[in-house]
Amino acid sequence: MNRRSLREQVFKLLFRVEFNLKEEMEEQCRLFLEHEDIEIEEQDAEYIVGKYTAIHEKLEEIDSMINEKAKGWSTDRMGKVDLTIIRLAVYEMKFDDTIPEGVAINEAVELAKKFGQDESAGFINGVLAKFVEKAE
To answer: What does the alpha-carbon distance between residue 97 and residue 79 come to, in Å, rounded to a whole number?
Structure first.
């Protein structure tokens, strides 16, 4: 599975956080891997669950960062798809040294085009741009 496909699977799994209790997410991970409409090899499954787990462990910190940067918006007001994409991208930008910020933003915009609403790509791009603005 290529990086884009893996990222999409992480997004789909992370999206389940919005609809399940924390205690249910281990079972949700298992169900996701068993019932996803594509065949997921073991090494890809490990990557997907590992990245989801890393993001989930930092969710409070990531949401705090989003709330600080997204002036006029809070994570409570954002659409669940947009929020999930932003969470994934912020994790990649701030905690994953293997992914350049520009790639994280571009991939987030692509996810927004595929799964979000018409305005999602622009909204997500605008929020994520706040994370790379340099102090003057």
So the answer is: 27
Burial of 16 (0-12, 13-18, 19+ CB in 10 A): middle
Domains, the chain, ordered by start: 3-129 (1.10.940.10)
Cα 47 → chain centroid: 14
Question: What is the rounded distance in angstroms from the CA atom of residue 21 to the CA atom of residue 72?
Answer: 28
Q: What is the pLDDT of residues 100-136, one digit of tens each?
A: 999 999 999 999 999 999 999 999 999 999 998 654 4
- 3-state helix/strand/coil string of the chain: CCHHHHHHHHHHHHHHHHHCCHHHHHHHHHHHHHHCCCCCCHHHHHHHHHHHHHHHHCHHHHHHHHHHHCCCCCCCCCCHHHHHHHHHHHHHHHHCCCCCHHHHHHHHHHHHHHHCCCCHHHHHHHHHHCCCCCCC
This prediction has a pTM of 0.90
What does R_g of the chain's alpha carbons equal in angstroms? 14
The conformational region for residue 21 under phi > 0 = left, psi -120 to 50 = alpha, else beta, is: beta
